Structures are given as C-alpha cells and as structure tokens.
Amino acid sequence: MEDDLNQVIERDDRLLKEYLQRNNLTPIETQLGYYYSKDSENPTGTQITNGDIVGAYYEIRTIDGHLIESYLDESKPARLYRHLEGGLIPRAINFASGLAKTGESFTLYIPSYLAYQDYSYQQLILPNSNLVVKVKYVAKFSETELKAYEDGQIQSYLAANALTGYVKSEEGIHIKTLSEGASEGTATSDGSIVRIEFKISYMGSETAILESTPSTPTQITVGSSSNLKFLNLTLKGVKKDAEYEMLVPSHLGFAQSPQVFPFLIRRDLFDKGFVTQVVRPYEPIYFKVKVVEIR
Q1: What is the mean pLDDT of residues 106-121?
Q2: pLDDT confidence of residue 1
Q3: Domains in the chain, please, with CATH?
C-alpha cells in the first residue's frame, strides 16, 4: 500500500508540475506538495492560527478546467471550517489557511492526494483529480465570537421571516412551544427514557437531514453524556405529547466535525464512511420534536 501511495504522489506531482510549466505559472511550492500564489494581500488583516474557525469563499476546478463548485458571492454567508488537521475536505485549502491573514486571496494548485484522492461523485468529481482553487479567507472566529455570530444569524432569520413565539434560553437555543403536553403525568428528569419523533434541517430549509417516522420514534436517555448537548437541555422537564420547534446554535449541536466543500457531496461521504457526521458543522439547525412516550 505504501508503494501504491508513493506512485500516486509521484504521478500527481509530475502532472501538476507539467501543468504549471505548460501555463508559465511560478507559484510557491510547499513541503506538503501543494503550490500557492497570493493574489491579494491585506497587511491589516489578522493572521489565521491553529484552532481558528475560518470563513472563506472559493472556487474549485480541476487542472483541466472542469468546475466543481464556485462559491465566490460575498453577499452570501462565508463557509466555515476549523483550521486544524482534519478540519476540511479538501485538505490543502485548510493547510493554506495558516499562510493567510483575513481578507487575503490565494490561488492553490493541489495534487489529488491533498484533495479528494481517489473519491468520485457522479460526473462532478472524478478520481485522482488535481485541482486549481481560488480562495479568499475573509474572517476568523474564536468560540465566543462564533456563538455571537450564529446568534445574530438566528435573530436575522427570525426577523426576516416574521417568525414569532420563539423564546431564547439561557444557553442560546431559540424555542417555540407548540404544545405543553399532557396536563397529568411526570415530567422528564435525568435518567428518563423518552421516545421522540423529530426532524432536523438546516435553518431556512424544508429538506430534512435526519428525521424519524411515526412508526419508528427514536429512544433517548435524558442526561446521557452521549447525547448532543441541546437534547439534554431541551428534553429535561417536559411531558408526554409536548411538542417544540427550536433553532439550535452549533456549539450545542453538531460543531465537532470536518467541513466538506462542496456541501453537495457530504451525504455521499457520510454514507461511504469518510465523515462520521452527516450534519454540517458551524451553522445553526432547525429541530422539531414531539415527545411520544416517557418511561
């Protein structure tokens, strides 16, 4: 297997060098194997460092010019990932973050072993594709700054869509009570086993990412350390038949996962076991839940 990997590296390095020579390009070569040129500098920007949550715009093409995705419209929210090993697919975009200050733009020339490797997706991504990526690193966030940023996104979404009835919890979850549930019976506490019907989607989307069905409610032990944080916070002290909608910031939900560009391939990567979480990190989610049984 090591011999196979070495052959892949040698092949990609050769093809990438031939591409650069053919097009009279002289970017800087890195020890990791990708190349970069800095297209615009921002001396007053803030240096991106290890652990930062980074916001970026980008365009991804193969060296043959095939467009995989263009996300350069800065009127849209920047796409976020954490600048740590394993924080982003393709990896080289993440690696180059450490060379950048906020507001700077790069062109990256990336061998497939630092991109999608031998992964393929329909006709969009072919195996062993070497890439040319335009990327602008526009922002970075600490954990505290990300919480404020996401809360602003939620507030703006509620105002723009004239949505009312949501109450913000102390932890930052915006909750709307659809039903208080049964007037009698015991409310849940730590250790209670509850069966719920639920739907999870991205904020503003009708398409479910994950959902139960009436015939297959999901069972959860309230207070379990294996639960997502927002479940323990919102399913404690509720009664049978209670029903809620909520907007959940990522630090209480699905923050700890690699980001994937383009977003389109995430489900496929999850189904094939390349990422362990189907929900994207670093953005709020919509969660609707009904408690159908308490034990």
Answers
A1: 97
A2: 61
A3: 2-141 (3.10.50.40), 144-294 (3.10.50.40)
